[in-house]
Every structure is written in structure tokens, then in C-alpha cells.
Amino acid sequence: MSVSLLGMETEYGIIREDMESSDPVEESMKLLQTCKHKSVFGKWAYSQENSHLDMRGFRVKSLSQDEEEDAFCAEDRKRSYSYLEMKCDRVLKNGARFYNDHTHPEYSTPECRSVLSLVAHDVAGERIVAECVALRNRELGGKVLQVFKNNTDYSGHSYGTHDNYLIPRETPFEDLVKALVPFLVTRQLYAGAGKVGSESTTDFQGLQLAQRSDFIETVLSIETMTNRPLINTRDEPHAVSNQYRRLHLILGDANMSAYATALKVGSTSLVLNLIANKEKFSHLELADPVSDVLQLSLDKTQVLHRKTGGTITALEIQEAYLESAETAFSGKDLEWNWILAEWKRTMNELRHSPEKLSDRIDWAIKEKLFAEFMQSEGIGWEDPLLKSLDLEYHNLDPDRGLYRALQQEEEVYSLLTEKETARAIEFPPEGTRAQIRGQAVAQEAENIKRIHWTGVEFANGDILDLTGVIGSEEVEKILDTRKQLI
Hints:
The structure is a single chain. This protein has helices at about 25-35, 65-75, 85, 115-140, 175-185, 190, 260-275, 290-300, 315-330, 335-350, 360-375, 385-395, 400-410, 420-425, 435-445, 470-485; strands at about 5-10, 15, 40, 55, 60, 90, 95-100, 105-110, 145-150, 160-170, 195, 205-210, 220, 230, 245-250, 305, 310-315, 450, 455-460, 465. The chain is α+β, with helices and mostly antiparallel strands. The chain has one domain (about 5-425): Creatine Kinase, Chain A, domain 2, CATH 3.30.590. The strands form seven sheets. A seven-stranded antiparallel beta sheet has the order 3-6-7-8-1-10-15. Strands 18-19-20 form a three-stranded antiparallel beta sheet, with helices on one face. The chain has a two-stranded antiparallel sheet with strand order 2-9. Strand 7 (about 95-100) and strand 8 (about 105-110) form a beta hairpin. Helix 1 packs across helix 4, helix 4 crosses helix 14 and helix 7 (about 260-275) packs across helix 10 (about 335-350). The longest helix has 26 residues, at about 115-140.
């Protein structure tokens, strides 16, 4: 398998409803401070971060996030806490990182070796964040703090959900870009979380496929907060750099449907494996992929122009990737079989009966839900109430969140069991370096001096270097050694 590890980073929207103007920095801090799960707090090794290297072969002098951090630091000097205290970094015993990304609480899953494991850990992150919200509201004396798993505040701000894939460096970056871009432009057909209205055009009324499509500006960029790209070029593998790349995709939506997350990550993994096997897909290259992202989000039947001439639909592009994946991978792995079967079912229903998607694809769930509401209330898409309902779909509060209500009424597809989610809350994925990190937190938290994706440093000087740890054999070897030392 060419995709070695998978991960997901989710920034959550946060608001205080009892205040006209609240400080999201402080609200995120206070939320993180309520976390009761065993963790290592405030010891993230920022010295190991290196976000300025570009996959195109150069190093950038500065990023927009540097300017924002400088501004925050200047403001933070007026506060009673330091920059590191503001970050409130936690590494949990399940191997995840939970911290304050300035104005958003962010949950980064542990590294996973399977799609379904990643989905379980993504949902575990939702539960952990929701627990913290409940604890914070108990302190505040009412449900005044609300947190949303979405990607826009409808005020021009977008925050990210980043899917990550550890892939072989031997695949030329240019080949990766050419082969992957048409797939990424069109995967919103099933991966989009849906969005009422548009923040990029004033003459659209209705439901878009995806929330991030309003904010994609270029094909390639190292930036994540401005000039947002289809493919982020940051070269920070968190692994042996001459062997691996970490493909850091920032164009995706935050899915409430675990099924949609699984299909998004699963199909992307299979396409990356096809590319690693030297499949080119040159016949699918698009003439204007950046414009196509938004136009397709506004109209899923939009005809796209190919670079080589002629036109093609988004559905035809996805079906072409699916056909190649079926030929290459059918029957070779149980999880791959599931992904292929569900990808094919979704394509068939998109073509013949899209209403059947309304139990498991977020935009389709919203489309049905909001259509029924508009009919009952006698209103149209232009009514501002629809944007409020859109936000509430993503609310983590079980008493307010519309998706949560649909779950409770068993009107949406349940991919995971409660047992699988509960296990991901407590334990790291086995056979990954996250297992080592999680066990270190669980057993030796008080002795940890610094911690990062690539290693753990203990107060006595011992260092666990996890940079080259990818497979289960390497994990077992280190765990056996640690047992003898503890």
C-alpha cells in the first residue's frame, strides 16, 4: 500500500451567545482547560515544526500565518498569559493532539493505518470537544457556548478540515498534481458538507455542494489561510523526508456524516495509490480547475472543459477514477472492497436517483431537510433563517444540533458502533507510532518533557525517535523495549 498513514485535522467554530463580542482566543483556551482526558499539557515541541519548506523545491521566507502569529503575539503581550499558555496544547492518551489554533479549538487525530480507524478517531474528536463544551457551559451556568463542526461563519471567514496522507516521495510532485487535481475538484459530489448561499457570488440562492469551495483561489500554494489552494505544497512529512511526503489537503469540508468522511478519505487513498502505480489520467485534466471548484459547487451538473479540448462532467471524472481503482484493487483488501462498493453505489445513485443519498451524504441530507422545512414554512432559499439552520446542522450540542437529532431518530446512516467510537476516545490506533505516543502519555505523562508527532523526550534525557516508525513491526519493537525500561 502506497498510502502509509492517514490523519485528519479539524478546526471548530466557537461562539458565546450571551455576549455581543467575545474573544475566541480566550474562549478556545477555556474550552481546552476543561478537558478531563489524561494528557500531556503544554509540552508540544514547536522546535520540531517546519512549515516553510515547499514541495516545489524551495523555502519561503514568510507565510501569512507568521504575520498573524506576530499580530497575536503583540496582542498577547497585553494579556496575562504567554503564547504557549494560549496554545493550551494537549496530547491525549489516544495519541491525538488537541489545542488552540488561535481562534479555534483544533483536534488532530492520531495517525491511522486504515480509513475506518481514522473515521472512528475523527468522531472521537467530536465527542471529546462536545464533552469540553458541556463542562465549560456548566461553569458558565447555561448553554451559552456553542461549537460547530463546519467551515464558515457566514461572515467571510473560513476555517479548515485537513485530510493528510503519507505517500512515497518517489512519485514526482508534478505527476501527483496533474493526476490528482481533477479528482479533488470533483470529489465534492459526495464529500461536500453543503452550504446555504454563497460568500463569493451575490446572485446565487440555494444549496451549494461544499463550504470550502467559496474560498479556493489557486491550484498550488504553501499557504493555508490566504491564497488557499487545491493542493497545499507544504513539505513537512513528519517522517523520513527523503522517503515520504505528507500530502496536506486543505480544500475539504468538515463532514458530520462519518460515512461521507470514510468515502472522502477512502476514495482519495485509492486514487493516490493509483498515482503511485504511475497511472496518469491526462485525459481528465481540466482547463480551469480553480474556477471549476466553485462552479461545480453551485451546480453539480456543470459541464467542465478539459485541457485537451472537449467537455466532461464531474460525474464522468469520478466514474473514470472509480473504474481504474476497481481494475487495480478489487478483491485485494476488505476495506478497499468496501470503499469501491460504496463509491460505486454513490456514483450510481448520483446518476439515477440522487434522493437516495439523503441518509449519508451531508449536502443531500441538508437538501432534503431544508426542502421539507421550506415547504412547511412557506419560505424560500433567500430566507436568512436557512443559514441559521445550516449552522445548527453542525452544532455539537445533542439538544440543538440538527444532525445529532437525525442520528437520534435513526434517519441517517450509522457507520460506527458506540463501542468503536468509545475505544477511539480512550485508545490510540494499534500498529502506528500513535500507539507509542499514546502509551507514553498514559503511563509516563509526568515524566515527559517534550512531545511531537515524531518523538517523545523524557525528563531523564531518554528520547523516543518516531520519525522512521511507520509499520507495526517497528511499533512492537519499541513497545517491547519500553516495557523493559519502565
